[in-house]
Design a protein that fits this description.
alpha/beta; 347 residues; 5-stranded mixed beta sheet
């Protein structure tokens, strides 16, 4: 029985709306043969899946990127380990750059998709609503937004700061134009408020530019300086998985306020090219919700027996396959829906 990887559904032409899910999909796509795993977009959390990504291996359930990667390494005796070929320096770079991205770039992705009210209301929330079933479509988006707010609170940038820049227009309240010999007057309150808002807009823009530079410049320098197809060598590593997931969510969504994506076209063209190439190589053609939720065959009933590595080997790893091994989640009954609602309300 193949492994089954359960993730949040697709969005933005990517196979998942969630960064950790994307990184895990990228890892399995590049480390495992297609016959060894299936990919299930979950429109609603099943029993035992309080967290995604979730890997099911028979009766064993593993959640989270690091735990899933560790499980794959163990059951394959290291054969499904993308970092096995890295030398000591490359392994150290892999750890350092991955930590940097997870700390710096993930916060910017949170700002872009969840904190910016325009982007959240018109794009992110609607993407969840179009793919999740009830009650998840109602409960998950605000929970994810609240999590993003906690993760970005240290940045000191709020939803109001990311609203469209204010413009100063002439107003009757400003009064007539002052003659040169008139005594100086204080600006009317509304004009003072407008000037304060503009100053704040400029400060926020500078702060965002500094955060984007801090997050992307080191990776851009690494990408521009190496002669390899991937970031560290001619084979993909876990760094490529983390980079692909976060860069993809930074670049690919079509947003009302594309402050993050615009940095690629103006400052980091090399990373834009790397991201688009890597998305195509790891995930194939642009993914739609129908690929995962409608056209994919229904997943088989999972058995208790786990995967035997010898059944699959590595015969088609890295074969440049065009499509992911999608399977459609089985339809939930009313009892499962009610239990899911109870779990969401209690969490």
């Amino acid at each position: 029985m193949p492994l089954s990887l359960h993730v949040y559904p697709p969005a933005f032409s990517l196979p998942s709306i969630d960064a950790e899910c994307l990184a895990t999909i990228a890892y399995l796509s590049r480390a495992l043969p297609t016959s060894a795993w299936t990919l299930v977009a979950e429109p609603g959390l099943s029993e035992g899946e309080d967290e995604l990504p979730c890997l099911r291996d028979g009766a064993t359930v593993v959640t989270g990127f690091d735990a899933i990667v560790g499980h794959l390494r163990r059951i394959s005796n290291g054969q499904w380990d993308l970092d096995a070929r890295l030398d000591a320096q490359q392994a150290a770079d892999c750890l350092a750059f991955s930590s940097h991205l997870l700390q710096r770039l993930s916060s910017l992705v949170d700002l872009s998709l969840y904190i910016c009210a325009e982007n959240y209301d018109f794009t992110t929330r609607r993407a969840y609503g179009a793919t999740l079933s009830f009650p998840e479509s109602w409960a998950v988006p605000p929970k994810r937004q609240a999590l993003a707010q906690r993760r970005t609170s240290h940045l000191g940038i709020s939803a109001q700061d990311l609203s469209p820049p204010s413009s100063v227009a002439s107003s009757p309240d400003a009064g007539p134009t002052r003659a040169f010999d008139d005594p100086p007057r204080r600006d009317p309150p509304k004009m003072q408020k407008a000037k304060s808002t503009i100053t704040r807009d400029v400060e926020v823009a500078r702060r965002l530019n500094a955060l984007i530079e801090e997050a992307l410049a080191p990776l851009s320098a690494l990408n521009d300086s190496n002669q390899h197809h991937f970031l560290l060598s001619d084979s993909p590593s876990t760094l490529d998985c983390h980079a692909l997931s976060l860069l993809g969510l930074a670049l690919m969504p079509c947003l009302e306020n594309p402050f993050l994506a615009s940095a690629f076209t103006t400052q980091f063209k090399g990373l834009e090219e790397y991201t688009r190439r890597s998305v195509k190589e790891a995930f194939g053609p642009p993914v739609t919700a129908s690929d995962a939720l409608v056209r994919a065959p229904v997943m088989e009933v999972e058995e208790d027996e786990g995967v035997e590595f010898g059944e699959y080997g590595n015969e088609d790893v890295g074969s440049g396959r065009a499509e992911l091994p999608w399977r459609r989640a089985r339809t939930r009954g009313m009892n499962q829906t009610m239990r899911g609602m109870a779990r969401l309300m209690a969490s």
